[in-house]
Amino acid sequence: MYNSYSSFTWTCCAFSAATWAFLIGGYLPYVGDTRIGILGYLAGLLIGMAAVTLASAVPSYKYGVDTIDAAKSSFGTYGVLLPLFGLLATLVGWTYVVVALTARGAANVVQTVEQSTDRPVEGMVIVLALAALLLVWLIASRGPWLFERLSNYIAPGHMIVTVIMLGILLYQFGPAVFAIDVPVDQALVKTKTQGFALAVEFGVSNSLTWWPVMGGLTRLVGKRRHIMGPSVMGVGVLGAAVISMVAALAAVSAGTPDPTIWMIKLGGPVFGTVIMSFVLLANVATMIIMIYLSGVSIQQIRPLTRLRWDLLLGLILLPGIYVAFRTEWVIASVMSWLSINGVMFVGITGITLVDYFLLRKERLEPEHLFSRDSRNIYWFWGGVNWVAIVISLGSIGLYLWMYDPVAASMNAYAGYLGAGIPTMVLAAVAYYVVMRLVVIPSGIGGYRDAREPKHEIVPAL
């Protein structure tokens, strides 16, 4: 479906540039120094997206399979339920975040048009959230073709909006806007070094949440050279870093991280409303992609393959009804959710990257990815690679020991590099060592076959 560099870049950008990019950017100044927050976030995004693209996007592109199918080669036929759980939590969870942002933003737009200064009426917010869920269900039920077309308009539109907002900030505050910081007592950390490490952590955490997504997109890409650049630039730089930079400057200037408030506050009641309306409409495409990918992946659970596509998507969106009544709480918890979401994939990313590139030498056996019996080379022990499971769970424990995402506090070991990068590297090293010393010599997992090239049978003339 993506036959050019630009088409996939714009899809990645449109996907990444949902309202959450503005919301996350609004929290970057709270590392203590706005400029350090912006630069650290960019660094974390570049490092994290490079790792995630290699671990998730490349094997899915080569074999045309979903991320979860490719992960069976490292986690086992049934062990893949662990990353599948993380995938569904990511895609569905962020869909609900965008639903909450869209509903509250739309309510703010309505009140601005009506020239009302009161807080959004909760009844209106609930109705708008339910309407957003219904719209996403109706469009996603028709398949993936629509979001590819929408992205060619939405992503450039996001970039235009971002440039306009930056122009407004420079017009109102001048270059001094880059020197505005939050009050010292509101900073999450005390030193600039810790602030940079925390900002890097936000970037890495954001990137890791893309592990379950990139494979589902790159399996629709036509050429290998269109994978890495669009993924890192579209998701990491254009869709996340650039938009979050402007959002950070706008939020610290307006005194609130909520983009549904500062967009209208900075842009004025008319122009701000127009910008906010476009951003809210663009959220629909993002929600459609996430729900579509959720529907594809959840069919790894065999009984669900018998459900009609529209009914399956309806079941996935059903818990969103609860979210419609708790939108304010969802928005307030978004940064904690970002880090908790990222920690799910910190070990998985390191494991799948090492397994595919270093242990399997970029060779998978597709027919075994779809087999569910003991003759499958990815069967390991009863369908589970316990080495991958234990290291993934251990990585979560190590990460949480180094960094508490709820309190946004790091121990001394995470004060320079954050927690995501060291944990991902340690997980990759541990997996490689245990697999090379224990599993591969035992002949389990089909690794010997992966190292021995297969010869094609040439028919006799």
UniProtKB/TrEMBL annotation:
Alphabetized Pfam families for the sequence: Transp_cyt_pur
Membrane-protein topology: Multi-pass membrane protein
Recorded GO CC terms: plasma membrane
Cellular compartments annotated: Membrane
GO molecular function, one term: cytosine transmembrane transporter activity
Residues that span the membrane, as ranges: 7-30, 36-58, 79-103, 123-141, 153-173, 232-254, 274-295, 307-325, 337-358, 378-401, 413-434
UniProt entry keywords in alphabetical sequence: Membrane, Transmembrane, Transmembrane helix
InterPro entries assigned to the protein according to its UniProt record, in alphabetical order: CodB (IPR030191), Pur-cyt_permease (IPR001248)
Primary localisation category: membrane
Keyword set includes Transmembrane helix: yes
Domain of life of the source: Bacteria
Family from the record: Belongs to the purine-cytosine permease (2.A.39) family.
Name this polypeptide is given: Thiamine permease
Biological source species: Mesorhizobium hungaricum
